[in-house]
Amino acid sequence: MTTKTARSRNQLVVLRLGHRIQRDVRVTTHVCLTARALGADGIIISDVHDRRITDTINRVTKQFGGSFTIETGKPWRHSVTEWKKAGGRVVHLTAYGIPLPEIIERIRASHENKLVVVGAEKVPGEMFHLADWNVSVTNQPISEVSALGIFLDWMFNHRGLQEEFPNAALRIVPTEHGKRVVRP
Amino acid sequence: MTTKTARSRNQLVVLRLGHRIQRDVRVTTHVCLTARALGADGIIISDVHDRRITDTINRVTKQFGGSFTIETGKPWRHSVTEWKKAGGRVVHLTAYGIPLPEIIERIRASHENKLVVVGAEKVPGEMFHLADWNVSVTNQPISEVSALGIFLDWMFNHRGLQEEFPNAALRIVPTEHGKRVVRP
Fold first, then answer.
1. How confident is the model over B79-92, as a mean pLDDT?
2. How many angstroms separate the CA atoms of A173 and B99, rounded?
3. What is the rounded distance in angstroms from the CA atom of residue B75 to the CA atom of residue B51?
4. Which of B118, B138, B158 should be substituted to probe chain A, the one whose Cβ sees the most A Cβ atoms within 10 Å?
5. Which one in A134, B78, B113, B118 has a CA-CA gap of 20 to 30 Å to B18?
6. Where are the alpha helices (DSSP H) in B65-95?
7. What is the full DSSP assignment across A82-124?
8. In a mutagenesis test of the A interface, which of B145, B164, B175 is the best target, namely the one with the most A β-carbons within 10 Å?
9. Would the CB atoms of B175 and A134 count as touching at under 8 Å?
């Protein structure tokens, strides 16, 4: 079992493109929960503000610990170009990209901060060219939620699944049959 | 690269509990796409019929191949008890369960057919007792979509990501920067 703070690595932030208020509130919430649970440092939801999502995720972080950040409302292209200007690298998850097993070693070997981009239904063609790596989690139609989860699991060498979060008010205790939650 | 038909294994079917028509249409569609892309044989959406989901997924299967099945409308408890009566085993994905890395070997070692249960917001307490294994993909609040994706990736030894689907009308060709789709 490792703690988030003890693991030495660069920043990894998720960028959610194309969130549509109302329609995507549940799916984008799932993207945020996945990013947080699997060890990303934060998420940027581009172009819009959606208070329901920010409130939900900040409440989860307060209860279950860690320091997951959410930023909203900035144009997506601005986030991507700023990230690159600061020396970071950009991964774009898309069914059209290079299969994860073929490319993960190269991504892991690069020591720059990573921005991991996940789209909603339509991603602007420009994104495929701005990305350093277009990565596919299967070349099948899939969900950006599971693609992100699987990518992060591989990115962190399958070691993120039992990570403990610091400063948690609640902690789930693994149980064979039932539910157990404690206040540490 | 392996093809789905060439891989010898028992049946694995996903059971989606608690789907609420309207509210969950997008998330349940993501659950279905994830199940199909990662190599499950089919999905059962319990208790309700939601034609939009069935139509979407059947269209994807027709275009991208394979023989993914969808069954809807049966009470969830009936599906679980029938599965067990027929000698199959039941995995329930829940943040309260035993961590995936600790339990996956035991699940892989069992040769019975598997029913993999994923809930929506509230799962009846009875489910925790009907399951042979309650499995957590992190003990954090997470999405059932990414939990399912990561579970299937581990279940199939990380070999499902480059699987080819037979009888596809369309096939995505992995590309560094852009989109390429061919008719095989």
1. 97
2. 10
3. 17
4. B138
5. B113
6. 76-85
7. HHHHTT-EEEEEEEEEEEHHHHHHHHHH--S-EEEEE-SS---
8. B145
9. yes
- In this predicted structure, the answer to whether residue A5 has a pLDDT above a threshold of 50 is no
A127-178: pLDDT as tens digits = 999 999 999 999 999 999 999 999 999 999 998 898 899 999 999 999 999 9
CATH 3.40.1280.10 fits B8-182, yes or no: yes
Q: Do B175 and A97 touch (CB under 8 A)?
A: yes
Residue A121 has pLDDT above 80, yes or no: no
Helix (H), strand (E) at residue B171 = strand B171-172
- Average pLDDT of chain B, as a whole number: 93
Supply the pLDDT for residue A162: 86
> Cα dist. A162→A4, A128, B15, B117 in Å?
10, 33, 25, 21
Q: Is the pLDDT of residue B6 over 80?
A: no
CA distance A57 to chain B (A): 10
Contact residues, chain B, for A131 at CB < 8 Å: 177
> What part of B 65-94 touches A (C-beta under 8 Å)?
none
Segment B73-100 shows an average pLDDT of 97
Which residue in B has a C-alpha nearest to residue A66's C-alpha? B140
CA–CA gap between residue B96 and residue A88 (Å, rounded) = 36
The alpha carbon of residue A107 is apart from the nearest alpha carbon of chain B, in Å, by 14
The residues spanned by each domain of chain B are 8-182
Tokens (6 digits) for A19 = 């969130």
What is the predicted pLDDT for the residue at A1? 44
pLDDT in tens, A20-50: 888 899 999 999 999 999 999 999 999 999 9
Q: Which CATH number fits domain A4-182: 1.10.287.130, 3.30.70.100, 3.40.605.10, 3.40.1280.10?
A: 3.40.1280.10
Q: Tell me, what's the pLDDT at B159?
A: 87
B100 contacts in chain A (CB < 8 Å) = 161
CB-CB: which of A31, A128, A141 is closest to B177? Answer: A128
Select from A33, A128, A139 the Cβ nearest to the Cβ of B174.
Answer: A139
The chain A residue lying nearest B66, using CA atoms, is: A140
pLDDT value of residue A9: 67
